[in-house]
Amino acid sequence: MENIFYPSKDGKNTIHACVWKPEGEAKGVVQIIHGMCEYAERYAPFAEFLNDNGYIVCAEDHLGHGKSVKTEDDLGYFNDAKDYSVVVEDIHELKNRVQSDTVGLPWFVLGHSMGSFFCRKYISLYGKEFKGAVIMGSGFKSKVTLNTALFAVKLNALFCGWRNRSKTIKKLAFGSYNKKFKPARTGNDWLSKNTVNVDEYEKDALCGFDFTNNGYYVLFSVIKQACSKKVINSVPKDLPVYFVAGEKDPVGDYGKGVVKACNKFHKAGIKNVSITLYDDCRHEILNDDCKEQVQSDILLFLTEVSNG
Question: What φ, ψ does residue 208 adopt, rounded to 5°?
Fold first, then answer.
């Protein structure tokens, strides 16, 4: 794995990114957009699997995450402007930097969880530069729900500041996620039925931290963008899009939100939209008991699109 660093579009911070390269000749590139309260290097096992199958893989740590933070206080804080587009442009800058060494290779993008919503916005802007997109652990939320959430964050920030880590906002966002997994061992049982994965997540200081009001504002803003008719209609009609999620993932409303998002893409006239829901799997399907099947299905998608 190669570490690279480059200036963030916020004009203040430095973005950390990882690049994994196969030993032999590469057949394509997969750019990964990680989720909330995690970081790029968590995808090393999946990146190595893709390397073994001939793909270069790259991923950056978003602002407020991983090695892109200067201090612990910056975890879960994106940028002073509360601007989701800064994160999108940091994602795109990684592509620009890696692409100079990968001329002629097909590019794919995969976004997980929060990263899936950034990915959906990303392909609405830059989708023509990609051969295909994998939307993982995603869902669909109404404009009313998201406006209510944004109002709650702004109200809390008015009294407590944008760096405040509100337990109330956290409960609003994730309070119901463990309800179907009682008796729960931890507050993160909804992530995976694989207890080793959950325990490793819990022990990792760069995972599971509380978001700031700033972080939640950016999160809800990009979800609102991703679920908007305007953004979905801006995705190139000929871009193959593959939705994958756990059938018991609360982020995707236990499959219903994933199906709804998929249907919205179909309705927008995107020609090649497919979906796989994994039985009895939760949110982190690349770390759950179904991970080998997930890897195989994604590889098949990459192969079929590349050869199509």
Answer: 70, 10
- Listed residue (20, 17, 64) closest to 44, CA to CA: 20
Which helix (DSSP H) or strand (DSSP E) does residue 127 occupy?
none
3-state secondary structure of 158: helix
Residue 156 is predicted with a pLDDT of 97
d(CA 273, CA 32): 19
Q: In 3D, which of 134, 125, 37, 143 has the Cα closest to residue 88?
A: 125
Q: What is the pLDDT of residue 102?
A: 85
| pLDDT tens-digit readout, 45-104 | 999 999 999 999 999 999 999 999 999 999 999 999 999 999 999 999 999 999 988 888
Residue bearing tokens 């993008």: 109
Q: Rounded distance, CA 147 to CA 150, Å?
A: 5
d(CA 35, CA 171): 18
253 backbone dihedrals φ, ψ, rounded to 5°: 55, 45
Which residues are bridge partners to 63 per DSSP?
none
d(CA 74, CA 39): 14
Identify whether the C-beta of residue 218 lies closer than 8 Å to the C-beta of residue 173.
Answer: no
Q: Exposure string (b/e) for 34-58, b if CB count within 10 Å is 16 or more?
A: bbbbbbbbbbeebbebbbeebbbbb
Reduced to 3 states (helix: H, G, I; strand: E, B; else coil), residue 58 is: strand
**Given a cut of 80, is residue 308 above it in pLDDT?**
no
Which one, of 237, 103, 218, 105, lies nearest residue 169 by Cα?
Answer: 218
Please report the pLDDT score of residue 133 as a whole number.
98
Residues in a beta bridge with 241: 133, 273
**Whole-angstrom distance, CA of residue 260 vs CA of residue 145:** 15
Distance CA 215, CA 86 (A): 13
Tell me how long the chain is. 308
- Residue 107, amino acid: W
Name the nearest CA neighbour of 113 among 236, 248, 285, 277: 285
Please state, in angstroms and rounded to a whole number, the distance separating the CA atoms of residues 214 and 222.
13
